[in-house]
Design goal:
Layout: H1 31-49, E1 54-55, E2 58-59, E3 61-64, E4 69-72, E5 75-77, H2 82-103, H3 106-111, H4 113-130, H5 132-141, H6 148-173, H7 175-183, H8 190-210, H9 212-218, H10 221-228, E6 235-238, H11 240-243, H12 263-266, H13 287-299, E7 306-309, H14 311-314, H15 324-345, E8 350-355, E9 363-364, E10 370-380, E11 386-393, E12 399-401, E13 407-409, E14 414-423, E15 432-440, E16 446-454, H16 460-473
Antiparallel strand pairs: 1-2, 3-4, 4-5, 6-7, 8-10, 9-10, 10-14, 11-13, 11-15, 12-14, 15-16
Helix pairs in contact: 1-4, 2-15, 4-5, 4-6, 6-7, 6-8
The chain binds iron/sulfur cluster (SF4) (2 copies).
One iron/sulfur cluster binds next to helix 13.
């Protein structure tokens, strides 16, 4: 027995019988589309160019997940830069909050790579091969999924997705590595080959199959929308006061300006009807604005029945730029981003961490001396090689062995060297001896740290007695 049909459409991309409703939006040329084309192609150029741009000898952007190092605009953040990265991440989040409060989902509609590639690369190719939205719908109706035109489109999609996958991966491993994977034998680097293949398939599936589902189901931003926007945020909105009651026909007596032509619906890439108000699926792409403006032109009405406005303005409550969130977000952004810039400009030329022993806290030699082992981890933040020397002071009887000192560290790299410190057991007070560890490259960096060596606990009187006995023997 067939499942009972849902009472009306539940989702814009779901038919009442539960099957996928494929969207073949009709393109709408107009003033907003022209602006978006310029922005989109500028962004496509930027997205593709970024992995090839170098600043101070470093990529403009490299998210090296394996080494947990992130490079932005020529500055590398090392795994130890937790505070810096946290401040940067919070700044970005506050920036998104502020942009949303002011201009709604401007990122989704104008700049998100998903929208930009889908609407300005993949969909135009689809229209070219399938004969526009009508041709695509015809193929859908006739279920000609393997029609030669569709297969040809898929072949072009595959090449494009492969290129985008390589570009995307270059953000994480660098362009040289991607080229090495691309042109080397798969046998020589099976993991790299698998990563490239899987990313290409993911891109192809995203732009061929998932499409608007990525925005509506996978991306959390739309779901945050109700929290990020307020009544005064700029959104793409239908002026219901002017448009309602909607109705077809030349006789407009008692009717609003909406002629119920559905042009705003058939052009929508997420399949919604903007006249139903602000919806989670609306990515604020402005296509319905162009579609409706063209209709208004035809029927001799002023443009802007669908326009950038706010819910407060549409309800006749005026425009309010200054609101709690448009004051608080910039203040919070200034504080957090200011702290980030301060930290960034005041960080040392090296990042040094003293790491305790991995096993036992100390060892006892047959002669009773105590051996401590610790490690010095050095991250070189400068742009040149530096050799770091380690010195330990604080006890005249101390013997220090640092077999790797001086340790050469490449720019942006992190290296670790072991240090062995031997002391007579008597030099420990309550099982502890504090020493000073100095690390220096003799030029850009010198840092001194206190380190507590561990030793055996013994009774203080015993120790003094043994020391006195030692004196008597002399
Ligand atoms: S309702 Fe308009 S602005 Fe929103 S996604 Fe659809 S076409 Fe774009
Ligand atoms: S395009 Fe404009 S006139 Fe046509 S249905 Fe949409 S809002 Fe109404």
């Amino acid at each position: 027995m067939a499942a009972p049909a849902a009472p009306g459409r539940v989702l814009p991309t779901l038919n009442e019988d539960g099957t996928r409703r494929w969207l073949r939006p009709k393109p709408s040329s107009g003033a907003w589309y022209s602006r978006r084309v310029v922005v989109a192609w500028l962004l496509i150029f930027v997205y593709i160019a970024i992995p090839h741009i170098y600043i101070n000898g470093k990529p403009a952007m490299l998210l090296d997940l394996q080494r947990r190092e992130f490079t932005f605009v020529g500055t590398t953040f090392l795994p130890t830069d937790t505070l810096l990265l946290m401040l940067l991440a919070i700044s970005v989040v506050i920036g998104v909050f502020l942009a949303s409060a002011l201009a709604g989902r401007v990122w989704c509609g104008w700049a998100c790579p998903q929208t930009v590639y889908m609407e300005f690369v993949y969909r135009p190719i689809e229209r070219l091969f399938e004969g526009g939205p009508r041709g695509s719908l015809q193929l859908d109706r006739e279920m000609k999924h393997f029609h030669p035109r569709r297969l040809a489109k898929l072949a072009v999609y595959f090449v494009l997705s492969s290129f985008l996958a390589h570009t995307f991966l270059a953000y994480f491993v660098g362009w040289d590595q991607v080229m090495h994977w691309a042109f080397g034998s798969p046998n020589a680097h099976p993991v790299g080959f698998a990563i490239v293949t899987m990313t290409t398939i993911a891109m192809l599936l995203d732009f061929t199959y998932f499409r608007e589902q990525t925005c509506m189901v996978a991306c959390p931003y739309g779901r945050w929308q109700s929290a990020l926007l307020d009544n005064d945020s700029l959104i793409v909105a239908y002026d219901y006061n002017r448009g309602e009651p909607r109705g077809k026909g030349k006789d407009r007596t008692g009717k609003g300006d909406c002629v119920d032509c559905q042009a705003c619906v058939t052009t929508c890439p997420t399949g919604i009807d903007i006249r139903n108000g602000l919806q989670m699926e609306c990515i604020h792409c402005t296509q319905c604005m162009d579609a409706c403006d063209a209709v208004m032109d035809k029927v001799g009405k002023p443009k802007g029945l669908i326009r950038y406005s706010s819910r407060a303005a549409l309800a006749g409550k005026g425009k309010h730029f200054l609101r709690t969130r448009t004051v608080m977000y910039p203040v919070a952004f200034a504080v957090v981003f200011g702290a980030f810039l301060y930290q960034l400009t005041h960080k040392d030329a090296a990042d040094v961490t003293l790491l305790g022993p991995a096993g036992a806290p100390f060892m006892l030699e047959p002669n009773g001396n105590v051996v401590n082992q610790f490690r010095v981890r050095v991250a070189n933040r400068t742009g040149t090689d530096h050799a770091y020397r380690v010195d330990v002071t604080g006890d005249d009887d101390m013997k220090v062995i640092a077999p790797l000192s001086p340790l050469t560290v490449k720019p942006g790299h992190t290296e670790t060297m072991p240090v062995f410190v031997t002391l007579p057991a008597d030099d420990f007070e309550e099982g502890v001896k504090s020493v000073k560890v100095t690390i220096t490259d003799g030029a850009a960096y010198t840092g001194t740290f206190e380190y507590r060596l561990a030793g055996p606990m013994h009774d203080t009187d015993d120790r003094h007695e043994r020391r006195d006995r030692g004196k008597d023997h002399k």
